[in-house]
Design a protein that fits this description.
The protein is mostly helical. It is built from six helices and two strands. Strands 1-2 form a two-stranded antiparallel sheet.
Length: about 120
């Protein structure tokens, strides 16, 4: 699966190292590979549905350690934001951020497309 459309929407802040950027991109590739192996009909990232990410979260990450699973869940959030589905998909995936808990801001930002803003839809 070609994830170049997703990568175009990512912006890494200056403080993020090149190694952490490669790790995020590698995890995105791994998530897309897990999806395309289980669901061969998914050829592009825009074809990913909620059920595919639920499969990755529940089954695809089952063999990993807790720390690695947390890293992949953060990458799933980045992927959902890049696909502009965060309002609909993050609650069922149980990956919503709780603002009362605080935490460090992510060094990876997702740039929203301007198409919706041009049409006046928000």
């Amino acid at each position: 699966m070609n994830i170049s459309l997703v990568l175009r929407r990512l912006r890494f802040e200056g403080k993020s190292s090149e190694i952490s950027q490669r790790k995020v991109i590698g995890r995105l590739n791994k998530i897309c590979r897990i999806i395309s192996e289980k669901f061969p009909e998914v050829q592009r990232p825009d074809q990913i549905k909620l059920k595919h990410l639920q499969y990755v979260r529940n089954e695809g990450l089952a063999g990993y350690s807790a720390a690695t699973t947390v890293d992949y869940k953060r990458t799933i959030v980045i992927l959902v934001e890049a696909l502009e589905r965060q309002r609909d998909w993050l609650p069922p995936l149980k990956l919503e951020k709780d603002p009362s808990k605080g935490g460090r801001p992510s060094s990876t930002q997702v740039i929203c497309s301007g198409a919706r803003n041009r049409r006046g839809v928000r």
